[in-house]
Amino acid sequence: MRQEQFEARFAARWDEFDLWLKHTRLPRRQRAKQATPFADVEMAPRYREICQQLALARSRDYGPAVTERLHRLALEGHDALYGTPGGGLSRFFAYLAGGFAQEVRREWRVLLAATLAFVLPYVLTMIAVRAQPDFAYIVLPADQLAQFDTMYGPDADALGTQRGARDDLTMFGFYIYNNIGLAFKTFAGGLLAGLGSLAALLYNGTFMGTIEAHVVNLGHAARFYSFVAGHSSFELTAIVLCGAAGLKLGLALLAPGDHSRSAALRQAARSVIGIVAGAAAMLVIAAAIEGFWSPRTLPLPLKLGVGAFNWVLVIGYLLFAGRRNAP
Amino acid sequence: MLDTVREVSTPELIALRLHCAGPVPRALAWLIDLAIRGGIYLAIAIPLSAFGKGGTGLVLVAVFLIEWFYPVLFEVLGRGATPGKRALGLVVLNGDGSPVGWGPSLTRNLLRVADFLPFLYALGLISMLMSREFRRLGDIVADTIVTYRRSASPLPIAPEAPHWRTKAPLSRTAQRAVLAFAERAPRLSPERAEELAEQAPMLTDDALGQQAVERLYGLAHHLTGRER
After folding, report:
1. Which ipTM was obtained for this model?
2. Does a structural domain hold residue B160?
3. pTM for the whole thing?
4. B113 shares a domain with B9
5. Do B54 and B144 share a structural domain?
6. Which single residue of A123, A221, B80, B140 could bond A216 by disulfide (Cβ 3.0 to 4.6 Å)?
7. A78 touching B, CB under 8 A?
8. Nearest alpha carbon to residue B140 among B92, B179, B108, B176
9. Interface list for B 139-178 with A (CB within 8 A)
10. B107 belongs to a structural domain
11. Where in the sequence is the domain holding B10, given as residue range(s)?
């Protein structure tokens, strides 16, 4: 078939396909008003037809214009057919309802490594500072320690804040901005052979262990635990999860196994990016608790009880959610 | 042919051709986005600062969202491009040429942090220069590519001319060249078109000047089978 015959025969169908593509791009309201050239179910066979004609046009050496036209139609049809389905947010909530916990359980090895990298320095510095209070000043600068001294001291305005600085909404915004940003950076640091994530976990463990022991040494234990109990579960778990996701990336880079390094990285990222997003959601919860609940001066047993309940909630969720429809 | 063109095979086994974009247009797009983000910060911060302390909290939340999710939202919901990329005619796609989704877009944008190290995307630039498709680290991990948006330029049409046939054997390459010439010559200067047409005397029976051009047009019509 000569090119002109070919074009004359199929041009009408190409125009229809083009019209259908334009129609899908209209805003929803206008889409309802205008008629489509063909029903949506017909799209896939029509698209395959375009692909076949493109292959024909190329193999028969038809002119660049007609090949290019078919190529553009095929590209846009490809986008429409293989694009992301809508409902991003609802799919994310469905993921949080079970898929998130499933993926965390699947990655238990890196999670264990990340937990150790966080908990070991935490416990060790805590023991060291409890046994030898001056050790705190070797780990952290004195003015930083003094800051925490006032935050949990008896004359703080509200728990966990410096004098006169408290505003719940501001603190909530700060926790969102600072903590989730740090969690994302902890994940991204994994790309540096896992060192960034590892350093972040070790540093956080050391820092928090030192502060906790230091504040307890000074006799502010009740106020300190009253503040941190509520949000610690969500916050610490999320940090460890992001660290674990970063370690997974680093591991893919260091020991790609049977794959090329880039293929291993791609696979690792695909299996942990959901965990990072889920951890971010946990940190939003943590920020809300830390901003609006933790600074309240309420009876210590109540605060500790809520804290324990949250820990049970987080661990129970990670252990049991999504088991019923697990693959 | 061009080494920045990436061919991806669709499940229908046809090759889609994508033109990957290099570091310079991408840096420019980033600068435009930076200016836009700065504008949004100001537009949010000025009215919210009227609310006093609580306003600061909301500003911080907004800054967080824009800093991390501005590119993600635009890439997934805005047909693959932030406003800066759109201005430069760029679009983010998955490695297989399909539109980028939430997971890959989030991955490539969170990993900007690693690409930015040690300063101003130095690591990202090195990675781009070392990979064939100009991928920065985030692109490698997320399996995404940044390509030029398919141009909407009108398709060329070969101009009318009397039919012309030649007895010289026409190889496939020669046929392709004649068709390409007929569609592209109208966009060249007449002198250049004539100069090119005179390169193929065996196809035009040694015609010169405008006549050679016309004869090649005519030959193209003969090849495509256009009616007299």
Report:
1. 0.86
2. no
3. 0.84
4. yes
5. yes
6. A221
7. yes
8. B108
9. 140-143, 150, 155-158, 172, 175-176
10. yes
11. 5-148
